[in-house]
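Async update (no meeting this week)

Hi team, since we skipped the sync, here's where things stand on the single-chain job. The sequence we agreed to prioritize is pasted below, unchanged from the tracker. I ran it this morning and attached the output directly underneath so nobody has to dig for it. Comments welcome in thread, and please keep replies under the output.
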Amino acid sequence: MGRRLGLLIGINQYQDSNFQPLRYAETDARAIAHWLVNSRGGRWHPSDVQLFLGPQATRHCIEQRLMQLCLQTAGPDDTLFVYFAGHAFLDEGRAEGYLALADTFYHQPASGLQLASTLLQIFGRSPARAVVCVLDCFQTGSLWRQRRVSPFDCRPLPGSTLLATLQQLPNRFLLCSCRGNEFAAEQGEQNVGLLAHRLLLGLCGGAADPASGQITFQRLSLYLQQSLGEQQRPQLFGQGLGPVVLVGEEVPTEASPSAAAATAGGSGQSGLYRMPTGPAPAMQQAGNQTGQWPQLTQAPAGLAQLSPQQPATPAAMPAAEQQAALLLQQARSLLQQQRPTDALNYVERALQLTPTQASALLLKGQLLGAAGRFAEALQAIEQVLHQEPSNALAWSTRAALLANMGQFEEALRAIERSLALDPHNSETQTIKSAILVKMAVAQTPAAPPSATVPGTNSGQTSPTVGGTATSAGQARVGSRQGASRPGRALLVSLMLQIVGLGLGLLGAWLAIKHPGLPSALPLTIEGLGLALLCVNALSGCYFDGLWRFLPIPLTSLLTGAVPVYLLLTQSGRARLAGLVEANPRGFTAISFILLWFGLVAVLPFLLALVGLVSGWLRGARRR
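Output:
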């Protein structure tokens, strides 16, 4: 089996203000890359996946990586997967489609990546067996608006020439989707873009073949078309000569005309790859707006469907059990009426009569989980599993609760235990897919936008689970540095204040004690001291804020006290007169020294206030 090679690009911020900032592009690319190399996900080799985010996704860098990956690295048995999330636009002169990279300018189309030439010259010449290019683009520019036939039409981006050529290139696919335009903003779900979320759900099992478990690109594209709305529904262009397997082992098969038929024009041929109809609607309801994952139910009625229905109460059942069974029936009835709180009260009354009844404990766990009381719900489910270790429903409920609590590894073990007990339960498979997607998003390294995950020869970290730990360690180091920054700022300010005052005092001493020296020398030294104090006050307070400001008022008070003492007090005037009498030629030097102390008392303090206010305004504009 050949390798699976991936190049994923996400850009949120652009140098050109014509491209508005995006919310999900970098998170989408990072989450998909993390899932592809995850041992519980796609299981691609980490060195075969490259990730470029934000400022590092420049035109020169991406074009170079594409050529290296497609023309040098890929072999005849390999499959290439390219994912781009960012802006796309049309050249207003020739109406050619371009991908906007980090250093692209809208009015300089050559600074972008021309889509037609890239696909024809790079993808067309690649020896790879199959190339899949997924474009999750934000439509930008007035020309696109004029040329499209619907608000979310992607055809103007590749253009008619490229679309016609794709029909002649076997196994070269272009899947285009719109993340927004002037008619609609970006849409997201569970902290990733809507297309990326559905794509991950499809890769986690929604697009899997029921018999082989394989996930082919053809089935994935059909799944996306069926599960997304008009704005995000992708348009597929290209011709296939057989299934392109993205997940699972490839099994050599004879390519028949029906199995290898082309999929073109964005519609696909749904008759070729029949999708399972059960999981898709459930997976569309897998998330909620509160950030919990996976959501146990959309409505309390769903809990009643999850809970096993109890048979009619036998007449020979003991009185306590009969009463408990009746209370459970009433609880399920209240649940159907959308009254979960009252239903929970009836379940509690039933458990007072029969504390170890599994069905009551299971229903209690589901009700508490739906209310967000996950720890209490987990205790009830653990009681069930202690009594009935082979209860598949209890294991799947435990998995959902653990996922809501962020314990994804434990949740996966629980859901796999449930599937081992009940392998044909589509609802359990849906929960597993939801957990895998959330795991890919939650465990994605919180790297800065410039972080990349280069390939084999780059010598940098790959987006693996181990890479996540490395990034977390770097984040911890950064937090320690951030915690010590105020102390460093205060220390630097004090040192610069001491050096500046020391230079001023040195110049004053030379002027008084050595009047024969050229007057320029002590004046220069005093000027350097004053300049150092002013620069520290202005730039230091601008960049470091209050901690650089704190020592400056104290310095101003001390230096201001010197001329006040010498000029306004009797003892000070006496000392000043003594200095002049001892060295009449030093009168001018003493005058400059008094002026220097006055400037040091006022000027750095005023500049520090200016720097402090300017720094606050800069931070407010950035926020």
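Quick observations from my side:
The chain has a mean pLDDT of 75.
The first helix runs from residue 25 to 37.
Reply here if anything looks off.
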